[in-house]
Amino acid sequence: MIKNPVPWPNGKKCAVAITFDMDSDSILHLDYPDDAQNMVNTFSWLQYDQVAIPRILDIFKKYNLKQTFFVPAWCIEKYPKTVELILEDGHEIAQHGYLHEHPNKLTKEEEHYWLQRSINVIEEFTGKKPIGSRAPSYKFSKYSAELLAKEGIIYDSSLMGDDVPYILKTEQGNVIELPTDISMDDWPHNTHNAELGKVMPIKSPKEAMEIYLSHFDAMWEYGGLWVSVWHPFVTGRLPRAMTIPKMIEYMMDKGDVWFATLEEIALHIQKCIDNGIYKPRVDKLPYYNGRIPEMRPPY
Question: Which residue in 8, 82, 108, 237 has a CA-CA distance of 20 to 30 Å to 57?
Fold first, then answer.
């Protein structure tokens, strides 16, 4: 089913990264800069990050897991004490834009500016330059891979083109893609906010977890990579958070699972490539520059 399964460390069957995007109210100010001040209910909903993150950290600590948090740099500046809790427990902080801006809505120069600004904030706050990135709202542009490579970012986790890591090849160098899938995001299952125009039918925690675990069982069976894209103010809500320990225990009981940060996974993939024991698929970016010939006038 997977033609080139990854040789995971110590013969593990699959790799698992329970990643979270700590967006907080950055998304509110980005999309509603003038109205955000009066959207108090939505602000309170997003502020649940302050309750959920300590809860999530306690769960990770119980199982001795180190995982990856993608944090817009503005959130680091706005909520430093919360981000300090993440760092104190030894988790990875990765790049997720400055104010959750959408790269594919920017010029190349604008995207590069915000990327550099975000990297600088993370490096100054953590003492370490981030090596990973996730495009806010998955809005990866045709320039993103090139700019990430130029800035020394080793991996990205925004795209959905495979079940195993693959390579994004650009003129500036390569980026390792650690793919996920939209069904591994908690927004389609659990978010309902009329002010933001997000009105998905809310699944029960059990229903959402069944989807996540169906992905896990498949990745475990065939040697794939399982990456969640969860948000503290969504999956960190009490009834949903209660399912996380049960999920972790299910995975642990199944056995031969490598729980790792995305940084650890990316470095392992690079080592396997360098040693010639893993040959990932390569995508050359950008896929297209402008319209395809068939769509150029005259039609």
Answer: 8
